[in-house]
Amino acid sequence: MTEIPRKAVQRTAKLASLPLGVAGRVVGGWGKRLVGHSAEDVSAEMSAKTAEQVFAVLGQLKGGAMKFGQALSVFEAAVPDEMAAPYREALTKLQTAAPPMPAATVHRVLAEQLGSKWMSRFAEFEDKPAASASIGQVHHAVWHDGREVAVKVQYPGADEALLSDLRQLQRFSRVFQALMPGAEVKPLLNELRDRMVEELDYRTEADHQRAFAKAFDGDEHTHVPKVVASAPKVLVAEWAEGIPLASIIRDGTQEQRDLAGGLLAEFHFSAPSRARLLHADPHPGNFMLREDGRLCVLDFGACARLPEGLPRTLGLMTKLALEQRSADLLELLRTEHFIREGTVLHAEDVLRYLGPFVEPLRPERFRFTRRWLQSQAERVGDLRSPDSRTGRSLNLPPQYLLIHRVTLGATGILCQLNAEVAARGIVSRWQPGFAD
C-alpha cells in the first residue's frame, strides 16, 4: 500500500462490508445453534469475529474511519463486561497501530514538504515508523543539531479519505451504536466531522502544540514536547519516551494507574485556563507516563480555542447538582438553553438524572471503575427508565458539545485505568464556577 485508498467507491465498499458481515454472522450463528452449539458459545464467537472485522476495516482505511474508531475506544469501559471482552483488545489496537506507508512514499512527502534536500536537515532518519496515527505516522530521527525528534508524516490522500469516511460512517452509525451502547454515536460523528478537517494542516497543530508547550514549560505534572519545524503535511517535534497509557491500562501497577489518572485529570481541567485551549483528542495513545513521573501529552491536531477557559456555567451546574439544589439547577438549565422552550421538566427529575454524574466529586478521592461507568450508561440508556426519558428531554447547546465529549472521553480513560483520583480538589481548583 502506497497511500490511503482515496476513491469513494473503494472506501465505501470496505465500510459497507461491516453491516453485511455482521448480518452474515447472525445467520451463521442461527445455523450453528440448529446443529447443537450452545447459544453462549455462538454469541461469543460472533462477537469476537465482529470485533475483528470492524476494527480491521477501520484500521486499514485510516483517515476518518480510524479516527472514529479511536474516539469510540475510550467508551470501551462503558460496555457491559459480558460484551466487552472481544472488543477490548481490538479497540486498544486502534489507538496505536495501523498499516505503515512504504519508505519511498514517506520520502516523497518529506521532499514535497521540506524540500528536495530534506535529508540535510537530519543527522539520522529511521524509515521504519515508530508509531501510527489516524492521518499520519511517526518516525524517529535525529535533527541536524543532535536533538532526537519525532517526525509526523501525513498519509497521501488523507484529506479526501477523511471527508469520504465521515460521510459514509454516518450511514452506518446504527452498526457502531450496537457495538458501543454507552456512546452517543451520531452527535460524536457530527462533532468529529466539524473538528477533523482542521487536523489536515499540521501548521495549525504546530501552533497548538507551541501554545501548550509554552503554557506547561517546566511544569511538575505535565510535559509537552517542543515543536522543531512544521509544514502543511509534516510536523517535527522533540522526541519523547514513556509508558503508553494503553500499556498501563493493560498491565500497569495500581500505583501507575492512580498516578496516570490524577495527572490526566489535572491536565484536562487545567489546560483551558493555562493554554486557553482544550486538548480535544482524549484516547490512551496520546498520553505517556514518563520516567520522571510526569504525563507526556502528544497529538495536538484536535484542539478547541477557549479564550475564557472552561465555561463558568458548567461549574455552577456541577455545584448545584452536588449540593442537591434542584430548583436552582432547573432554573440555570433553562436560562442557559439546556432545556428547550416548551419542554416540561420537574426539578427533582433533573437532579435525579444529573446527580449520579457528580458522584466522583463527593469524596476527597474517587475510584473510577468500569462498573461505575457501565452503571451510568445502563441508567441513561434504558429507554424504559425515568432517567432516560429525562435525559432525552434535555438539550446540549452546540458550544458545549466538544467539552462534553472530551470530558466523557477522559472519564472513560480514568475508568479503564481503574484510577483513584482526587477529582474534587482538581475540579475545585480549575473549573470556574464550582468553588464560587
TrEMBL record:
InterPro entries: ABC1_dom, ADCK3_dom, Atypical_kinase_ADCK, Kinase-like_dom_sf
Annotated Gene3D superfamilies: Transferase(Phosphotransferase) domain 1
Ranges that cross the membrane: none
Name recorded for this polypeptide: AarF/ABC1/UbiB kinase family protein
Keyword field: ATP-binding, Kinase, Nucleotide-binding, Transferase
GO molecular function: ATP binding; kinase activity
Endpoints of the signal sequence: none
Pfam families: ABC1
Species, as recorded: Solihabitans fulvus
Domain ABC1 atypical kinase-like stretches: 93-314
Assigned protein family: Belongs to the protein kinase superfamily. ADCK protein kinase family.
Superkingdom: Bacteria
